[in-house]
UniProtKB/TrEMBL annotation:
Binding site for NADP(+): R48, R54
This protein's encoding gene: aroC
InterPro entries: Chorismate_synth, Chorismate_synth_AroC_sf, Chorismate_synthase_CS
GO molecular function, one term: FMN binding
Enzyme class: lyase
Protein name: Chorismate synthase
Gene Ontology BP term (one): amino acid biosynthetic process
Function: This reaction introduces a second double bond into the aromatic ring system.
Catalytic activity, as annotated: 5-O-(1-carboxyvinyl)-3-phosphoshikimate = chorismate + phosphate
Record text on cofactor binding: Reduced FMN (FMNH(2)).
Gene3D superfamilies assigned: Chorismate synthase AroC (3.60.150.10)
C-alpha cells in the first residue's frame, strides 16, 4: 500500500528521509552464495553521490554503505540484505521559510493533502536523496547478473537543457561530472555556470542500456519487461517521460523501417529497444528518460501558503540546478533491478525451456 517496495522475487524496500539519521533499503530474494562486500556497492554510490563538482548540490554526503544483514563470511545467505547509508551533512534550518508555503513543482502540496502533514526538511521522503538506496540495491543486482549471464549496464547524458550532447565514445562518460559521452564538456560547464548565476534550473535526457540480457525475459500483457522498466524509471524523482528503443520517433517511422529485420547473424536494427511483446529479444535494452527542471530554485515564484493565501517563494539551501547530472547511475540501477526481477522469474518458471532456434542476438555479439 505504501509504495516503498519495487519488485517481488527481488524485492527492494526503500526507507528513510532526506534529513533523517539514515536512509537505506532491504533486499529480499537475492540468491545465496554470491560474494558480496561494501566495496562492490560503494563504487556505484560514489558515482551518484552529491558534492562532487560545482554543478551539483554542495551537500557533502560520503554515502558510505554498511551491509547490516544477509551476508555471512563474505557471501549472500539468501536472507534479507539490509543496506544502511547514514546522513551526515543535513542543514535543516535552510527550510524554515517554507514551513507554511509550497514550492511550485515540488511535492509539498500533494504530500500535505495526502498525509495531512509533511516533512519540509530537504523534501523528506520525496527527496532525490532516496535514490541512493536504489543505486546500492542496483549494484547487488548488477553483480549477480554479470556473474550469471555476463549482463552489463551503462548510461550517459544525451541532453541538458536545450543543449544536445553528441555521442563520441563511451570512454568519455567516466571522465566528466555530466556522464557525457564527449571529450570536451566546456559547453556544458558554461551552460551550467550561466544557469546557476541566473538562479534557475534545467532538465536533462539520460540514456541507459543493458547488454548481454538473456532472450525470453518478461511476461505478456501487464508484466511486460518494457512496462516494468517504464514503471521503475517513473519511480525516479523528477522523471516525466520514458522511451524504449525508438520511442516517440516510432510515430513518424514506417513499418518497413521500424520493424527490426532478422538475419541468421542477428537483428538488422533495434528500434524495439530489445523488447518485443513484452519479452526480451537478447539485444541491448535501450531506454531514455526525460528529467524535469529542479523545483527548488532561488528565483522568486508565486505560490500559496497553507491557508490558501498568495505567497512568494524563494528556496534556500543546497540543491542540484539539474538533477539529471547525477541521474545516470540511478537509471542504470533501476534498469538492473527490473532485469534482475525478470531473470529470477524466468529461472523459476521456465528454467528447463529449450528451443532449436538460435539466439541470433548472442551470435552477433
Amino acid at each position: 500500500m505504501a509504495g516503498s517496495t519495487l519488485g517481488n522475487l527481488f524485492a527492494v524496500t526503500n526507507f528513510g528521509e532526506s534529513h533523517g539519521p539514515a536512509i537505506g533499503c532491504v533486499i529480499d530474494g537475492c540468491p545465496p552464495g554470491m560474494l558480496l562486500c561494501e566495496a562492490d556497492i560503494q563504487a556505484d554510490l560514489d558515482r551518484r553521490r552529491p558534492g562532487t563538482s560545482r554543478h551539483v548540490t554542495q551537500r557533502n554526503e560520503p554515502d558510505a554503505v554498511e551491509i547490516v544483514s544477509g551476508v555471512y563470511q563474505g557471501k549472500t545467505t539468501g536472507t534479507p540484505i539490509c543496506l544502511l547509508i547514514k546522513n551526515t551533512d543535513q542543514r535543516s534550518k535552510d527550510y524554515g521559510n517554507i514551513l507554511e508555503t509550497f514550492r511550485p513543482g515540488h511535492a509539498d502540496y500533494t504530500y500535505l493533502h495526502k498525509y495531512g502533514l509533511r516533512d519540509p526538511r530537504g523534501g523528506g521522503r520525496s527527496s532525490a536523496r532516496l535514490t541512493a538506496p536504489m543505486v546500492a540495491a542496483g549494484a547487488v543486482a548488477k553483480k549477480w547478473l554479470f556473474e550469471k549471464y555476463g549482463t552489463t549496464f551503462r548510461g550517459c547524458m544525451t541532453q541538458i537543457g536545450d543543449v544536445q550532447i553528441p555521442f563520441e565514445s563511451w570512454d568519455h562518460v567516466a571522465n566528466n561530472p555530466f556522464f557525457a559521452p564527449m571529450a570536451d564538456v566546456s559547453v556544458l560547464e558554461d551552460f551550467m555556470d550561466a544557469l546557476r548565476k541566473a538562479g534557475d534550473s534545467c532538465g536533462a535526457r539520460i540514456r541507459v542500456m543493458a547488454s548481454g540480457v538473456p532472450v525470453g525475459l518478461g511476461e505478456p500483457l501487464f508484466d511486460k519487461l518494457d512496462a516494468d522498466i517504464a514503471f521503475a524509471m517513473m519511480g525516479i524523482n523528477a522523471v516525466k517521460g520514458v522511451e524504449i528503443g525508438a520511442g516517440f520517433a516510432s510515430v513518424s517511422q514506417r513499418g518497413t523501417t521500424h520493424g527490426d529485420g532478422l538475419l541468421p547473424t542477428g537483428f538488422m536494427s533495434n528500434n524495439a529497444g530489445g523488447v518485443l511483446g513484452g519479452i526480451s529479444t537478447g539485444q541491448d535494452l535501450e531506454v531514455s528518460i526525460a528529467i524535469k527542471p529542479t523545483s527548488s530554485i532561488i528565483s522568486p515564484r508565486q505560490s500559496i501558503d497553507t491557508s490558501g493565501q498568495p505567497s512568494e517563494v524563494i528556496t534556500k539551501g543546497r540543491h542540484d540546478p539539474c538533477v539529471g547530472i547525477r541521474a545516470t547511475p540511478i537509471a542504470e540501477a533501476m534498469l538492473a533491478l527490473v532485469v534482475m526481477e525478470h531473470a529470477l522469474r524466468q529461472r523459476a518458471q521456465n528454467a528447463d525451456v529449450q528451443v532449436a532456434t538460435p539466439d541470433i542476438a548472442r551470435q552477433r555479439s
